[in-house]
Amino acid sequence: MTTAEKTSQVQQWTNLAQQLRVDSIRSTTAAGSGHPTSSMSAADLMSVLMLSHFHYDFDNPKNPNNDHFILSKGHAAPLLYSMYKAAGAVSDEELLTLRKFGSRLAGHPTPEIPWVDVATGSLGQGLPVGVGIAAVGKYLDKLPYKVWVLLGDSESAEGSNWEAFHLASHYKLNNLIAVLDCNRLGQRGETELGWNTEAYAERGRAFGWNSIVIDGHNYEEIDNAYRQAAATTDRPTFIIAKTMKGKGVSFLENKDGWHGKALDADQEQKAIAELNPQVRSMVFPVQKPANDKPDLEAARKPVELPRYELNSTEATRKAYGDALLALGAANPDVVVMDGEVSNSTYANEFGKAYPDRFFEQYIAEQQMIAFAVGTQVRGKIPFASTFAAFLSRAYDFIRMAAISRANIRLSGSHAGVSIGEDGPSQMALEDLAMMRAVFNSTVLYPSDANQAAHLVAEMANHGGISYIRTTREKTPVIYSPDDTFPIGGSKVVHQSDKDQVAVVAAGITLHEALKAYDQLKAEGINIRVIDAYSVKPIDEETLLTAAEEAGGKIITVEDHWPEGGLGEAVLEAFTQVDAPMPQVVKLAVQSMPSSGKPAELLEEAGISAHAIVQAVKALIK
C-alpha cells in the first residue's frame, strides 16, 4: 500500500470512528439514557473491523459464509446500532428510537434485529456463545467465517469467560477472535486490573491463546492485530486493547461517573463540536463474504426410536441416550454436548457413534449451555445434558437463551431424593420450578423408557427451551413402544366411573401412585391415576375432567420441593379457566433429605406409595 493509500485508509477509519461516537451520543441523548461512553471507547476498534476485516452481507443475514459479531458488552448497544446505521442497514430515524417503546433497538441487543445472533447484556456470555458458533464453523460446516467478540474489561471477572477460554483452546478455535475493550472504568469506578493489559495477556496465554496487546486508538496497531489473528492457524486470538472511556470528548474522556449516563442537549452539542466529525450519516460499505454457497442440507432419514418391552425395566436416562443415538442416525444436524457425566446421562452412546458431532464441555455447565446456543445459531439441533442439580449453575445462561429465542434441548438426570445414597447436593429438587419459570419453555418428566424416547424425539422438532427430567433408577416399562406422547398431553393410566380422588404424578412418583392404586383398589377405593409427563404445558383438559369426575379431589405427588413444581402447575391450570377449584393436596419433599436407599428416602419425604394411600384416605373421609 502506498503512503497516499495508507493515508486515505486512516482517514476512512477516522471518519467512521467519529461517526460512531457521534451517533452513540445522539441516540442516547434522544433516549435520555444509555451508555455512550462505553460505546465511544471501542469506536476505533469497530471502525477498523467494519471497513477492513469483517465480511457480512446485511441483505442476507443467513448467508452461511457471513462472519459473526457478538457484542458481549451488550450495554454498548448504541455502538452496535451506530455500526448498523453506518452499514446502511438502519436509518438515522430508527437510530434515534433507541430504547423507546415499540423500537427494536432495545437497551441491550436481542435477535429481534436480524443481524444479532444472540441477546447480550448479562455479562460474560458473548464469548461462551462464540465458542459454539466457532466450533460449528471449524468442525461441522467447515466454513471460513470468523467469530468476533467484543468484551468489556469489567466482564472479565465473570468465571464463564474463563470456561470459554479453556474450551476454545481445547478445540483450537483459530477462527475465534476476542477483543477486550480495556477502558479501565466500570460502573462504580476502576476495574480490578485497570490498564494492566499485560496481566490480561498473561491470562490469555496461560489458557493457550494468542495474546496481543495494542493501543486501542492506534489504527495501525488495530489493523495489524486483526491481521495477525486472521493468520493464526492453531489457536484462538485474544486482543487486549487499551482504550479510554468517552474517547474524543474532554469532559468525558477517562472520567469516572459517566457509566450509563446520557448527555443532555447542551452537552451533546459540545461533545459533537469537540469530535468535529468530517462526515455525518455516511454509509460505509462492508465487504461481503465469498459468493460460494455450500450445500449444507444433509440427507435426513426417518427416526427409528428404541423399543422397550412391556413389563421390563429400564432407566429413563438410558432411554434418553438411546433416543439420541436414533436421532443422530436420522438427522446429521443433531449435535450433543455433555458436562463430563455422559456415562451417567448416557449421552456417551451418541459420542461413540458420532464423535464429530459430540462436544465434551467438561465440568463447565455455563459454557455447555452457551455452546448449545451457539450451535443453534448455525441451524443445528443441540442437546445438552448433565445432572439436573448442576443446571442451576447455568440458569442465567438458560434465561438469556430464552431472550435470544434460542432453540435448545436440555436433559437433567439424577433428579430428586430417588437418586439415593449420593445425598442432597446431587438431588435436584428445584429444577421443575426453575425450568417452568423460563419464557416459552417446555418441561417434560417421563416415567418409563418408551415414553422418554418418544419425548426426546418430540424435543428435536420443538422450538424454544425444552427440558427433560430423567431418573437414575430403572423403572417398569408400562407403555407400548407404539404409544404416542405429544407435548402438552398426559396419560390417564387408571380410571373408572367410581373414582373418588385423582392422583397426578410424573416420573418416579407415577410408579408410587400405581402401587398405591393397587393397595387402595384391594380395599375397595377407586382412584384415577394421571401421568402428567408434560409439566409445561400441562394437560388442562384432562385435569378439569378428572376434577369433575373424581369428586373434586386431587392429590399431586412429586419428587421435588413443593414450590413451583408439578403441584403448582396443576393448581395453575385451574386458575386459567372458569371452573370450580378442586380440593388439592400436594405431596412433595418438605425437609432436607440425606443419604439412604431410594425407597427409604421416598418414604421419609412423604411421597411413597404408603404416603399416597394415607393421603387418599384422609381426603375422602
TrEMBL record:
The family assignment reads: Belongs to the transketolase family.
Protein name from the UniProt record = Transketolase
Gene3D superfamilies in alphabetical order: 3.40.50.920, 3.40.50.970
Check the record and name the NCBIfam families matching this protein: PRK05899.2-5
**A Gene Ontology CC term for this entry?**
cytoplasm
Q: Which PROSITE patterns match?
A: TRANSKETOLASE_2
Please list the residue ranges annotated as the Transketolase-like pyrimidine-binding domain: 314-477
Oligomer and partners? Homodimer.
Sorted UniProt keywords: Calcium, Magnesium, Metal-binding, Thiamine pyrophosphate, Transferase
* Superkingdom per UniProt: Bacteria
